[in-house]
Prior knowledge:
Low-confidence stretches: none
Distance between the termini: 21 Å
CATH topology: Rossmann fold
Structural class: alpha/beta
Largest sheet: 8 strands, mixed
CATH class: Alpha Beta
Strand content: 15-25%
CATH architecture: 3-Layer(aba) Sandwich
Helix content: 25-40%
Strand order of the largest sheet: 1-2-4-3-5-6-7-8
Order of helices and strands: EEEHEHEHEHHHHHEHEHH
Mean pLDDT: 96
Radius of gyration: 17 Å
Number of strands: 8
Amino acid sequence: MCRSPSRLDLDGLRMHYVDEGAGPPVLLLHGEPTSSFLWRTLIPPLVGAGYRAVAPDLIGFGRSDKPADIGWYSYDRHVASIEQLVDGLGLRSMTLVVHDWGGPIGLRFTVEHEDLVDRLVILDTGIGGGRPPSEAWLRFRDVVRRTGNAIDPARLVEAGTVGGLTDDVRSAYAEPFPTPESKAGVLAFPELVPAEPDHPNTAPMNRVRDALRSWTKPTLVVWGASDTALPPALADGFAELIPGAGEPVVLEGAGHFLQEDRPDELAAAILRFLA
């Protein structure tokens, strides 16, 4: 069964999402500066294995609406948009797969709606606040600040890979951002990371991190071995934090965007976990 692509109205903004297959739902949440396109190699094997794959474009990304005011974007609003999506599609007993900013958003959703999530898959992300994830991440934030709305989102993705991107894939990542105004979400996300103790998102993200200490449901952690912005040590941190997590799977030859560098190995690891 294929229900994609579709749009959902969220308080006057349209959220685009891919919805394919039938069976237990798997919700796939992307981060900065990607979209549901990130999951294009994972969705077919999930559907082939009997799952329903749902991959939204967060507001400000992909084919979803893009508020031009950077001030519109907030941690609370992104979490609320996923709550509305889940409710609108009637998703229950789901596996939640999170990457990059999809992590703080999806993990908060998880601890606040434990009855809706049966399993977690955590990929190259972080949770908690008060200090920067790494020196490389601080350099990334500085590049975004200095470049402003002249930023090339596709180059950001490519910089987070080991093997680079083909021209077609690079074009697909660039296509959602044709104007300077369309890049407000790309500029906003780094500023929402609570890299300082007094950042307004430090306390809510720390609450999510603390709640995960009692998360005993099955959890898979997969990481790119060559992720410099969010290094593999963070994978070990998640495995120690979450009682339901096993030993992390670290993919050699993969950077931050392991979906681009090692799509087959990532799909195999997730399908083994689901089985």
